[in-house]
Amino acid sequence: MGLTPPAASKASSMSQMQMPIAAALFVEDGDFTSTLILVNGSSLSTYADVTLRRLDGTTAATIRVQFALHSQQQVKIGALLASAGAAGTTSGSSP
């Protein structure tokens, strides 16, 4: 998963930068479920690109999560995998 603050929307010279964040492992099956909670503690609206990878390194699902300022979002891993057609993926990582 990478957290990417937006380029400044006001007449500012801030450039867009990517700050990768990694969650080591997700498990999603009949016994376990995973939820990713993302927080935007800044005073800017932003987004995070969340990518889930299978254990072999291939991409299982990707989603862009939008944030208002000072907000949080939850990503239910099972729902994300199902929406990407990867419901059979039961474990992996978010690089």
Helicity, in percent? under 10%
- Residue stretches low in confidence (pLDDT < 50, at least 5 long) are 1-15
Name the average pLDDT. Answer: 80
Proportion of beta-strand residues = over 45%
| Count of DSSP strands | 8
Taking all Cα atoms into account, the compactness measure Rg is 15 Å
Largest sheet: 6 strands, antiparallel
Account of the protein in words:
- This protein is mainly beta.
- The chain has a domain of 63 residues.
- The protein is 7% helix and 46% strand.
- Strands 1, 2, 3, 5, 6 and 8 form a six-stranded antiparallel β-sheet that branches. The protein has a two-stranded antiparallel sheet with strand order 4-7.
- The N and C termini lie close together (5 Å).
- The N terminus is likely disordered.
Main traits of this protein?
single chain, 95 residues, mainly beta, six-stranded antiparallel sheet, 1 helix, 8 strands, disordered N terminus
List the helices and strands and how they pair.
Elements: E1 2-4, E2 19-20, E3 23-27, E4 35-40, E5 46-54, E6 59-67, E7 71-76, H1 77-83, E8 91-94
Antiparallel strand pairs: 1-2, 1-5, 3-8, 4-7, 5-6, 5-8
